[in-house]
Amino acid sequence: MDLLKLGTQILMQQLGGGAQAQSEGAVQSALGSLIGNGESMDLAGLVEKAQQGGLGDLASSWLGDGANAQLTAEQAQSMVDDGDLGNLASALGTDKSSVLNGLKDVLPQLVDKGSSGGSLLDSIGGLEGAASLAKKFF
Fold first, then answer.
1. Cα–Cα distance between 57 and 60 in angstroms, integer?
2. In sequence order, which residues have a C-beta less than 8 Å from that of residue 83 and are 6 or more positions away?
3. Left, alpha or beta for 117 (phi > 0: left; psi -120 to 50: alpha)?
4. d(CA 138, CA 90)
């Protein structure tokens, strides 16, 4: 599953008619820069940023197959670089606020999909690893 492409599609759908995207490729590239290295998603890094920002409980709920806790636009903003956020807004032809309103739903879904079946969770040492990582920030 290509999570970057999935995230791009979800975000473009959520913004619907308000987003006049240059192209799906431009949006995908900007989203990749926002939550990865431009070519792939760094979901473990995203979870780590959430934990550093005091959102460890939220991020833990996204791991695995259980229910996902909701994220606010303000919380989403604390997890991303402002310059990359501006680039994504530009690629979508909209403003940062609109993008954040989309990201508040997209980010939990991406972490959930990426950790379904344990792949992301395994990469940080399972639930114990997630809890251990969270303890480092509290």
1. 5
2. none
3. left
4. 35
Of the candidates 15, 62, 17, the one whose C-alpha atom is nearest the C-alpha of residue 43 is 62
Which amino acid appears at position 118 of this protein?
G
Rounded-to-integer distance, Cα 7 and Cα 13, Å: 10
How confident is the model over 51-62, as pLDDT tens digits?
888 999 999 898
Close Cβ partners of 19 (under 8 Å, ≥ 6 residues apart)? 12, 92, 93, 94, 98
pLDDT in tens, 65-102: 778 999 999 999 999 999 999 989 988 888 999 999 99
Q: Which two tokens stand for residue 73?
A: 């636009």
- Locate 32 and state its tokens: 């990749």
